[in-house]
Amino acid sequence: MRRAAALLDSPVLAVGGLALVLLADGTGLVRLGLCASLVHECGHLLVYWLLLHRLPPLRLTMAGIGLQADGLWLGRWRETLLLAAGPLANLAAAAVCAVLISRRATYGRYFFLAANLCVGLYNLLPVGTLDGGRLARLWCPAGGQRLLGLVQCGVVAALGVWLLRNVWQGSAPLWLALAGAAALAALLREGFAAE
What we know:
- The model is unreliable at 1-8 (pLDDT under 50).
- By secondary structure, the protein is mainly α.
- It has 2 domains: 1-124, no CATH class; 126-195.
- 19% of the residues are buried.
- The protein has a two-stranded antiparallel ribbon.
- It is 74% helix and 4% strand.
């Protein structure tokens, strides 16, 4: 199990996998998603720097880029600000796109708006190690952790049902359902590991 975790945390594999995905991306949607992810992480970086006057170590894995702030306790309000900064950066970028679209609409602006909304809202889900899950655990009273776990399972189950319904109706391909199921399983595993 440790060997698999080490492989998933390998920067060389992450960059290689990213290169393959970018080569296969004829639509440019992956690039827009990566830009939205970069906006998200820059939001976290900016707030971290404003709070601590230094940049955190970054970790590149197959799951993406993340701040390595393990064991760092900032206090509840500062931690909330740090966790909310990424999704808020995405929502701000989406708002800027909406203003630009109102002046001159382009497909690129619509797709970038959608990518930022997806990344920001996805990270606000109260599940696992996502920003929303960490915020929920931060603010959940000690006696409410079991209820929070049930809510997290309910969110993942609802997402799974929605994805299966879309596959069943033919509006989503089977590969997307398999990828979604793997992501949902990882969210559940991370959620239980975080407790």
